[in-house]
Amino acid sequence: LQAVNSGEVFRIISKPWHQQELLGTVNQAAEAARLRRENERLTNEVQRQNGQLREINLRLEEMVRARTQALLEGLIAALDYRDAETQWHSRRVSLYARRLAQQLGIQEPELTVIEHGALLHDIGKIGVRDRVLLKPGPLTTDEWTEMKRHPELGWALLQRVDYLRPASSIVLQHQEKYDGSGYPSGIRGSDLVVGARIFHVVDTLDAITSDRPYRKARPFDDARQEIVRCGGTQFDPAIVDAFLAVPPEAWERIRLDVETVAALS
């Protein structure tokens, strides 16, 4: 029994054995041993190749990540050349959106999609004429019509970039409202992608708590009250509840981090 269990006995032959049976058994045992060694060799080779494949995949993922980040930086810089405040507003709302999405229990890869959509929400303004985009006074009806095309222009732009296409719905819907009163399509409720519904809340947070040419920044509590007031009309009530569950210092920390980067730029 010990020989069978520990010694890898191939077969038991009763005495007296026949010569041909013995030779056939030895040959079969030798072939079985050869196949076992070959199996071990191939297994080790597959493991080695799998390790190489993992390394290659990691390098490819890093290249894609670097290319994506470079493209994002380029797109935001291109828009920033025309509207200097847009860059830091976009960076703040992208990080706000990611934090709020985390509060809702959203995980990767959708977290990054939401962050990208918020970061690039205004990218369609690249297609708006300077005399409209940078006009200091009120827009005419025709100018306002042109300005309202920027979500669709942004959506069309991201359709051309495979790894940014998932974020394009957020860009297209970032001016919609929960009650359907937004533009360009008047989509309402849960028909809006969750990333857009998240963006609507954090965009208002940033708009109220940031300096604008026509007014100074207001306190966080003012933004909080406005977001609560508009829950169910402009904003998804479930998103508002998640926003209220995030400690105020978390929003302030994000703002300070972006301000630090801006000061060093």
Question: What keyword list fits this structure?
Answer:
single chain; 66% helix; 265 residues; mainly alpha
Order of H and E elements: HHHHHHHHHHHH
Mean pLDDT: 88
Query: How many strands, what sense, and barrel or not for the largest sheet?
Result: none
Number of E strands: 0
Helical amount = 55-70%
Strand content: under 5%
Q: What is the C-alpha radius of gyration, as a whole number of Å?
A: 31 Å
- Structural class label: mainly alpha
| Global outline | elongated
Distance between the termini: 77 Å
Treating each run of at least 4 consecutive H or I residues as one helix, how many helices?
A: 12
Low-confidence stretches: none
What's this, in brief?
The chain contains twelve helices and no strands.
Structure description:
The protein contains 12 helices and no strands. The chain has 265 residues and is mainly alpha-helical. Helix 3 (84-103) packs across helix 9. The longest helix has 62 residues, at 19-80. The chain is elongated and about 110 Å long. The model has no long low-confidence stretch (mean pLDDT 88).
How are the elements arranged and paired?
Blueprint: H1 2-6, H2 19-80, H3 84-103, H4 110-119, H5 130-133, H6 141-147, H7 150-158, H8 168-173, H9 194-209, H10 220-229, H11 237-245, H12 248-264
